[in-house]
């Protein structure tokens, strides 16, 4: 009996390990977690478009990983050995942004004591990532449009035209079509950018990835912070799954760092979570799995939670697998495989 239990647990652990490493099969996606169908679709799209020089516009809420996807596109492309230059257009004052993008010559303005190479020139041959392009002023939008159309520009205060060969990837958390209607964003620039759009889902739209994020962050933080956190209880994980995550993956990453550093070692429990998250748990929430004196590994806890979540979805839909799969945002074939793996059966 003990042997069969061990075999079953090992198979669960292997299944979780394999699902976490899906993106790791491609070196370009290293560090990006995503087993959910929405993220898998994005990974496939990135593989198809990376080697083209088409302009890409990434849209997603703050904290969804727009910069990581942009970097993955670059690493997958034929430009991967050339520079990847990133600039946050919303974080730099407007009077300095033009100089940051296009450079300047000595004496162009007060404080310009030497020539400066801009981001576009620094990215020559590679990729430039214009983050939060929706926050850019109309004057700069005109200059970006010119670079997109002609692949050339003049530094601030200069008259020499510089030609560049760059792949442009832009990103924004704003709805640019709406901004165009409001008159805040140039329509011609929008259509120049909107060649290949990528829409990143919010974390609340890919909740099935949360257990894998948790596992990833615990392993990563243990290495970086020299901690020894081994696992998270099913009850604590359930609380994380119930949170709405307005700050998306960045919010989850920051929370996990706080939890792991403060805990130091052992397992993360429901009492380790912020009071706001503990208060969200209903009285009938999942209880933590029973832990023996030897403990259990993180993957086992994640597997146990997944098993219970699948069973709950099946009960809720009266075991109609198509409906249960929709509730869990997974394919029906994926759900059927997991039902077989966990040997789930409908009660008589």
Commentary on this structure:
With 348 residues, the protein is an alpha/beta fold. It has 2 domains: 2-18 and 207-341, Helicase, Ruva Protein, domain 3; 37-200, P-loop containing nucleotide triphosphate hydrolases (Rossmann fold, 3-Layer(aba) Sandwich). It is 47% helix and 11% strand. The chain contains 15 helices and 9 strands. It has helices spanning 2-20, 37-49, 66-76, 94-102, 119-122, 138-150, 176-182, 187-193, 210-225, 234-242, 248-263, 275-278, 298-316, 321-328, 332-341, and strands at residues 56-59, 84-88, 127-131, 152-153, 162-163, 167-172, 196-199, 228-232, 265-268. The strands form 3 sheets. The chain has a 5-stranded parallel sheet with strand order 2-3-6-1-7. It has a two-stranded antiparallel ribbon with strand order 4-5. The longest helix has 19 residues, at 2-20. It is elongated, with a radius of gyration of 24 Å. It starts with a helix and ends in a 7-residue tail after the last helix. Mean pLDDT is 86; it is low at 1-24.
Largest β-sheet summary:
5 strands, parallel
- Main CATH class of the largest domain: Alpha Beta
Instruction: Please give the CATH architecture of the largest domain.
Output: 3-Layer(aba) Sandwich
Query: How many helices in DSSP terms?
Result: 15
**Strand content bin:** 5-15%
Overall number of domains:
2
Structural class: alpha/beta
Poorly predicted parts: 1-24
- Counted beta strands: 9
Keywords: ATP-binding, DNA-binding, Nucleotide-binding, Transcription, Transcription regulation
Protein name: Sigma-54 factor interaction domain-containing protein
Pfam families: AAA_lid_14, HTH_8, Sigma54_activat
GO molecular function, one term: ATP binding
């Amino acid at each position: 009996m003990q042997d069969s239990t061990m075999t079953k647990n090992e198979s669960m652990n292997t299944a979780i390990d394999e699902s976490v490493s899906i993106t790791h099969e491609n070196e370009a996606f290293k560090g990006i977690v995503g087993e959910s169908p929405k993220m898998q679709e994005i990974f496939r799209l990135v593989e198809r478009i990376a080697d083209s020089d088409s302009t890409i516009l990434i849209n997603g809420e703050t904290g969804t990983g727009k910069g990581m996807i942009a970097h993955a596109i670059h690493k997958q492309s034929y430009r991967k050995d050339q520079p990847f230059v990133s600039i946050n257009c919303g974080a730099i004052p407007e009077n300095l942004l033009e100089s940051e993008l296009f450079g300047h010559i000595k004496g162009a303005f007060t404080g310009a004591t030497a020539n400066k190479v801009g981001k576009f020139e620094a990215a020559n041959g590679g990729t430039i990532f214009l983050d939060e392009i929706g926050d850019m002023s109309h004057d700069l939008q005109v200059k970006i449009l010119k670079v997109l159309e002609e692949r050339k520009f003049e530094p601030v205060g200069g008259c020499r035209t510089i030609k560049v060969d760059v792949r442009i990837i832009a990103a924004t958390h704003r709805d640019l079509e709406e901004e165009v209607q409001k008159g805040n964003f140039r329509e011609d620039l929008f259509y120049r950018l909107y060649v290949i759009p990528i829409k990143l889902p919010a974390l609340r739209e890919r909740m099935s990835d949360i257990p894998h994020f948790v596992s990833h962050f615990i392993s990563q933080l243990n290495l970086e912070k020299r901690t020894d956190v081994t696992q998270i209880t099913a009850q604590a994980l359930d609380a994380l799954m119930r949170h709405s995550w307005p700050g998306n993956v960045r919010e989850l990453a920051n929370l996990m760092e706080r939890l792991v550093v403060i805990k130091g070692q052992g397992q993360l429990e429901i009492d380790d979570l912020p009071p706001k998250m503990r208060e969200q748990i209903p009285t009938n929430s999942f209880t933590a799995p029973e832990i023996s004196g030897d403990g259990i590994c993180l993957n086992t806890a994640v597997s146990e939670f997944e098993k219970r979540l699948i069973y709950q979805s099946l009960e809720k839909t009266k075991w109609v697998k198509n409906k249960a799969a929709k509730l869990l945002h997974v394919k029906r074939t994926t759900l059927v495989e997991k039902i077989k793996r966990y040997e789930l059966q409908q009660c008589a």
